[in-house]
Each structure stands twice: as C-alpha cells, then as structure tokens.
C-alpha cells in the first residue's frame, strides 16, 4: 500500500485525522472524511491533484491515478440546492490520470470493473466492465473480465 493510500484510510482517525488531511494537502490530494472507501484502494503517482467530493462512495480495489476529480457539475449552486445526490465508484474501477467524473443530478454510478481513460470527462453512469474515453466521455469498448480471459487463453 502506498503512503498516500495509507494516509487516505487514516483521514477519519479522531486523534490524527486533521494532521493526515494536512499531509494529504501537501501531496495535492483532497479526500474528505465523509468519503466512504472500500478496501484495496490503490493511488498511483502520489495522487497529486486528486479531488473527491464528500458525497462519494468508492468500492473495493479501485485504482486512482493523479489528477482525478470526482465532483459536481454545478459548483456555483449551493450544495443544498444542487441536483447531485452521490457519486458511486463500484469495485475494481480504474480512473486514469486526469479523469473527471462530474455528476449533474441524482446518483452517477461507475460500474464494476470499468476503466475511465486519461483526461476523459464522464457525466453519465456506466455499466460494468466498460471502457470510456474522450471529452465528453463515450463508451469505446468492453473489458473482458479476468475470469473469462483466463478461460480463453
């Protein structure tokens, strides 16, 4: 587990939580204590420039590269008036460098095993094991689950 990943898990600690948040800020990482994170989070390149909205749930074994943003599409609207409810990142998702997930309204879900390409801007939910890229992001392929890849090899 990387140092940044370890710090992210310790950000909720009553004793050192505030100090951990400040150390993460030195790395350019903002992950509020309200963010729910499953086990096995991998953060590469120290997560430099990564920002996560407090109304986010991150599943197990998610990979996040540097410069990823998970947030609202309407930051000028007060949080109470925003149509955004939550961003859900399911298990095994890979968010490549510079990817942006921007929720306009309701719950935006990135399906299990989905890959969001570098610098993609996603504004809609995805299905499982899909590959998305571009601005705005669009589905460009389908990922073969490891269980099927091993069976065909």
Q: Describe it for me?
A:
It is a single chain. The chain has 153 residues and is an alpha/beta fold. It has a single domain (3-152), classed as UDP N-Acetylglucosamine Acyltransferase, domain 1. It is built from 3 helices and 14 strands. β13 and β14 form a beta hairpin. The protein is globular and about 45 Å long. The model has no long low-confidence stretch (mean pLDDT 90).
The biggest sheet amounts to:
6 strands, mixed
Dominant shape: globular
- Strand proportion: 25-35%
Number of DSSP helices? 3
Order of helices and strands: HHEEEEEEEEEEEEEEH
CATH class: Mainly Beta
What is the CATH topology descriptor?
UDP N-Acetylglucosamine Acyltransferase, domain 1
What is the CATH superfamily classification?
A: Hexapeptide repeat proteins
Protein name: Serine O-acetyltransferase
InterPro entries: Trimer_LpxA-like_sf
């Amino acid at each position: 587990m990387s140092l940044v990943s370890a710090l992210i898990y310790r950000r909720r600690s009553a004793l050192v939580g505030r100090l951990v948040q400040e150390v993460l800020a030195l790395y350019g990482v903002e992950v509020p204590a309200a963010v729910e994170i499953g086990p096995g989070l991998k953060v590469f390149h120290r997560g430099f420039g990564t920002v996560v909205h407090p109304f986010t749930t991150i599943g197990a074994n998610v990979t996040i590269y540097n410069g990823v943003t998970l947030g609202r599409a309407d930051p000028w609207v007060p949080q109470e008036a925003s149509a955004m409810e939550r961003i859900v990142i399911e298990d095994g998702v890979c968010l490549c460098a510079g990817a942006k997930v921007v929720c306009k309204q309701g719950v935006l879900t990135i399906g299990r095993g989905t890959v969001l390409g570098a610098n993609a801007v996603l504004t809609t939910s995805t299905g499982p094991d899909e590959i998305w890229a571009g601005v705005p992001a669009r589905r460009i392929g389908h990922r073969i689950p490891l269980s099927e890849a091993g069976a065909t090899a």
